[in-house]
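Figure 2 data, in text form.
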Amino acid sequence: MPSAPLVPHGDPSTLFISAGMQPLQPYYLGFSQPPAPRLASCQKCLRTGDIEEVGRTDRHATFFEMLGNFAPAGDYFKETAIPLAWELVTRSFGMPVERLRVTIHPSDDQAYEIWTTKTPIPAEHVTRLGDNWWGLGRGPCGPDSEIWWDRGPDVGCGRPDCVPDHCDRFTEFWNLVFSAIRPARRPERTALDRGGDQAGHRRWRPGPIEAPGDRHRNGSGPHQLHPPGQDEHL
């Protein structure tokens, strides 16, 4: 799908599009039917929520393009989305398994089981984080699962037991959101009639991975996240 305008249409809750799935919210909420069961886009986004961090880190920005693949009508969910993401990252991008880590929401035992049985990632490289929950405005929302790149023990705190989101050693570059819950004005949330998957990758996030200071442990140089011609796999 082409990128929607940066200024949203028909959504008075926000001034700018801030996520790849935002233009697709009517599909997820069942207000209209998507043009296809599976969608992909490169969406222009603008975020100011963490603008104070821009320039202080190598992973914050305001304007960016988000590559995403979506199943707003429930054509696939966790059991398919996780293996698809892993195949893209390890086979198409060629990223070494030993440099990858995964985080999941503490309550998401299903995602943990899929990661540890349907992919070769070791169980000790899967961390439960309370922050792994994502939603936007009117919804939907749900637990998410992120894939992180290990920049090496010489980056960050230096602790041997370091885990993602603890310091600058790990860079999150892929997010799988399992949207299955509709936010409500009251404290309770209600389940959607159908769960929908969304996966996203910000095109500027390869910077920390490809940066000259981020070397393979064997000293062969920085890893290239986007081999030529691989963006179309999204």
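Caption note: Confidence is low (pLDDT under 50) at residues 184-190, 215-222, 226-234.
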